[in-house]
Amino acid sequence: MLRIGLTGGIGAGKSEVSRQLAELGAVIVDSDLIAREVVAPGTPGLAAVVEEFGTGVLRADGGLDRPALGAVVFTDPQRLAALNAIVHPLVRARSAELEGSAGPDAIVVHDVPLLAENGLAPLYEAVIVVDAPDQVRIDRLVELRGMAEDEARARMAAQATREDRLAVADLVIDNGGTLDELTPRVREVWQRLKDRQAAQGRAAEG
Q: Which of 25, 22, 23, 24 has the alpha carbon at shortest distance from 33?
């Protein structure tokens, strides 16, 4: 099994790269998706969050009210740490479960938005960074997500810098252009992962 980390700043196009890698045969472990899954209605994770933060973080339908919870934790580092202490172990356990079911010949790509910020690069055999110039990312956030430019800049400023992400990259996918330009770059990186996997297999046999 080949364990790969995939990251990229907001607006860089990491989700599209993840989608294309899945189509090529990668097993995707999406930490954001799992973080939502482990606090879905009826889960022990949600029960633990409610026990810690109270029923004020629930919507009327019983689901987690993320804006309400965010208002509590993002202005108070201690409360954020309390939330992370609940969610992170559940995410790790679910990620390990998904990886364990992937099979020995799988290329498992962990989609981790905050990989650089949290110093997670050593966990993976290689790290892919999806990269695009800052202004390109701002334009996408404004045009495609309807953000105000100030909001887009603030969201970017809250993440690692472009330089910090590139510093942990083993492979970089340039997504500063069009989707048509991106696809062959993703295919090239996928082939490099397959080559790495084949080399691993040869080394193990030798």
A: 22
